[in-house]
Design brief:
153 residues; mainly beta; four-stranded antiparallel sheet; 2 helices; 8 strands; elongated; signal
Length: 153
């Protein structure tokens, strides 16, 4: 029982990410609870200051959405931009999961992965979803040319 509680606690903690809500549009009406919608959120790269990613994703409404137990669709769209001077917090791995957003109560997450192409001084961001049993090949990608060398680990 303790192992199950620890697993569930870690699953919930990894879903925490600093994402700022930009706005949303309703996609279908629900009689009870909030409507189904597409939300747009901004996520700053935690290690490369000056890059912000904008993520559009489905959010399920209804009663299950209102209480936080709905399973969201795996479709997402991504656009990342250089919004200011680029600074690094230190040498970076060539690939790193920088954000995880909960898409169901326990077992489904939407990932935001940063990949670095040092030969072209480009940072690539990829979003995809995973599930405990079966993930989804649906994904979205965005590339940000930096024009400055990137320090790798």
């Amino acid at each position: 029982m303790k192992k199950l509680f620890a697993f569930l606690s870690l699953t919930c903690l990894t879903a925490l990410v600093r994402a700022d809500d930009i706005g949303s549009v309703n996609t279908s009406w629900k009689m009870l609870g909030p409507d189904n919608k597409i939300v747009v959120e901004s996520i700053d790269d935690p290690d490369i200051h000056g890059i912000t990613c904008y993520l559009a994703r489905a959010k399920t409404g209804g009663i299950s959405g209102a209480v936080g137990i709905a399973e969201n669709k795996t479709e997402a769209s991504l656009s990342c931009l250089k919004i200011g001077p680029i600074t690094q917090s230190g040498p970076l791995p060539r690939q790193q999961d920088i954000a995880k957003i909960r898409a169901s109560l326990f077992f489904k997450k939407l990932h935001l992965v940063r990949m670095i192409d040092p030969a072209h001084s480009v940072v690539i961001y990829l979003t995809y979803s995973d599930e405990l049993i079966e993930g989804s090949p649906k994904n979205s990608i965005s590339a940000v040319p930096l024009g400055v060398p990137i320090q790798l680990k």
